[in-house]
Design goal:
The protein is α+β, with helices and mostly antiparallel strands. The protein has a domain at 3-47 and 96-166. The protein is 34% helix and 28% strand. Strands 1, 2, 3, 4, 5 and 6 form a six-stranded antiparallel sheet that branches. A hairpin with a 2-residue loop joins strand 2 and strand 3. Helix 1 crosses helix 6. The longest helix is centred in the C-terminal third of the chain and has 15 residues, at 131-145. The model is unreliable at 52-95 (pLDDT under 50).
Length: 167
């Protein structure tokens, strides 16, 4: 994929997704076959329903049963100990992992023939996952395809900078 094609592809993606929420893009090498060029990208976008990091948890997690049932021991006279309060402030690991909406994007560019210059782009929402999972899937796809070419990983800021140059 030439730099010009890459920027054109990213600009088409940015036109369909909120570019300000794009976290990273993984661009696979383009494939040229029979007068056509096609390419694929995997994108991670911040979710709009992601809970705020500043918001306290709805309920204490890991509080002792005696505190939950209203019982008190003679040691603390009904006052929650510091360690129990700290446990209540800690969120479980499952909610601490931030998840992103995963999109796949494909382009098809006609290089030869009567429809020369035709450009098609499609963006599809696929799933939601943490960034580590997205990276693992991208590496797995690359390994299974046997493609020796490197997948280009761009941060959201890099994508926005490239698209701004195009405009």
């Amino acid at each position: 994929m030439t730099d010009e094609t890459r920027v054109r592809f990213l600009a088409a993606i940015a036109a369909q997704l909120p570019a300000e929420r794009l976290v990273e893009a993984h661009l696979f090498p383009a494939i040229r076959q029979g007068g056509m060029e096609s390419g694929v990208a995997v994108l991670a976008v911040e979710r709009t329903d992601e809970p705020s990091a500043e918001a306290p948890p709805a309920e204490p997690v890991g509080a002792p049963e005696s505190v939950e049932s209203g019982e008190s021991s003679s040691e603390d006279d009904g006052v929650v100990s510091e360690s129990a309060a700290e446990l209540g402030a800690v969120q479980p690991a499952a909610t601490a992992t931030r998840r992103y909406t995963v999109f796949s994007a494909r382009y098809r560019h006609t290089l030869k023939g009567p429809e020369r210059g035709k450009w098609e782009v499609g963006v599809t929402e696929e799933a939601d996952a943490p960034l580590l999972t997205i990276d693992a899937v991208v590496r797995g796809v690359q390994r299974r395809s046997g493609d020796a070419d490197e997948i280009v990983r761009l941060s959201g800021d890099e994508v926005r900078a490239l698209v701004a140059v195009k405009q």
